[in-house]
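Data card: per-record layout.
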Amino acid sequence: MWCFGYIAFFRTTAYFGLPQVAPHANAVQLILTLKMVGLGFEIHDMWQIHKQQEQENEERMSRTLQQLHSRQNFIRPTFASMFMYSFCYVGLLAGPYYKYKTYNDMIHNSDSRRIKTFSIMMKRLKWLPVLIIGFLVTSTYYSIQYVRTDEFYEQSSLLYRIYYMVPIFAIFRMRFYIGWLLSECICISATLGAYPATSLPKCGHGPTVFDSTGNRDRRSPSSVVYDFETIHNIDIYGCELAPTVRAGMRSWNMTVQYWLASNVYQRIPATSKPIRVAMTMMVSAFWHGVHPGYYLSFLTVPLNLFAEDEMIMAFKKGAPDRQRTVFDWFCWFFKMRSFEYMCMGFLLLNLNDTLRYWKSIYFMWHIVLIVCIVICTIAKQSKLRVTVDKNE
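The structure for this 392-residue chain is written out next.
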């Protein structure tokens, strides 16, 4: 509550007669909020496990606690170590988010100088020149500022206003791709998130397989294959080619997706999935900022996911392979148009600007989603009747 309360104050200083914070300071505050909330849950979860083990018999408790210490290092951060973790320059401006344990493992990794990182960085950067050129060329001809002008609405046709979402979203994606790829390379060069591939690290979480020595492979560092999946923040192939909205979201800002899943979604008391998704999107919108555009965009996500799930149930489940392939391509088209539509609210930010643009295209995607849900409901009922008739 304190972290999110402070970030709300941080974004609204102008209303209290204080100077407006600089954009880079806001970026730092975003990362600090994730780290502090995440650290609180890290410590809480460690002690919860410890408390549960105390209730077991002494012999079993001794064995499980020994495993806990070796696998999780049973973190007990001091004030100084928490401060250094919070303001560690790696990832402070652009991410990725990483847990205290990941930071602690980097600091105490005596093999870090012998970990080969150059080839891994080059692999991550292979698309960087194309992205930079694409961003510079596209941003020369298209700008979100133009959408805020009266000229855009008075001189452009409906089709052009719909089309304009495509290059704007492309610029948005390329800008973040460039920033996140470079930030990942900073992490790799510092060996942050370097774990043996045999430990099967997961994005944001870290190792998932341990031995009696903890995370460290007992072989020579030169012979160990290291994996930086822990700090992997962007999957460009997934963002561009994943067939569904859900898969596309999981490929975008992946460490923050992990933070939202582990610290928000999974901790909401058992309730319906759509409600948990909506509450998680609300937290995500609040973390991004106080502008209404964030909330309008993020609260469209549950409707998108529901429509997508309905389409899968109605037209993909149990369908022939050819139909499933065609459906996947249709779903990919659906996904890209969804993100483009929501991106406009994310970039326009202001309530009037966002609603003005969506109104100018007649709230097209909201209508499409509702129509899809209605059609899918009818299609599922029709399939059910056919199934019942066959059984009879």
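Known properties of this structure: The first helix runs from residue 2 to 11. Confidence is low (pLDDT under 50) at residues 66-71.

See the next section for split statistics.
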